[in-house]
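task queued by scheduler; priority normal; single chain, no ligands, no partner chains; default sampling; output format set to structure tokens
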Amino acid sequence: MPDVRRALRHGIPHCDQATDGNNTTYHSWASATDCPPQYTVWEYDPYGNRTAVGCNAAGVVNVIQAGVPYVRVWWFPDGETTSTWYSAAARLQYGSFMDARYDSDYFAWQATQPPPGTVPSGSDQ
């Protein structure tokens, strides 16, 4: 994948080659409501309830194939780090060539999560 900073300078390519218009690529900025949980910034109230308040990723390039999400490439403020979510179809196609960062970050995040209703001490996770 080309350097994210260069891609943003020149624009994210838009692919709409299918005759029915169901394949496309688009970029969106990351937000607390559209952020994978392992990259979400959380705040906790005194009762242990959490609210998503931000995203450690800066944006995402979405690839839609046959009208459904195929891959989502999350990129980070340094402009070089990426993390890719793969659909089941993409996993079959890419196999061992997949970037495992998204999955490993998710499993690492999941292992640190407190039981529901617990306020984590000194953590924004």
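post-processing summary
- The two ends are 29 Å apart (CA to CA).
- Strands lie at 24-29, 40-44, 50-55, 59-65, 68-75, 82-86.
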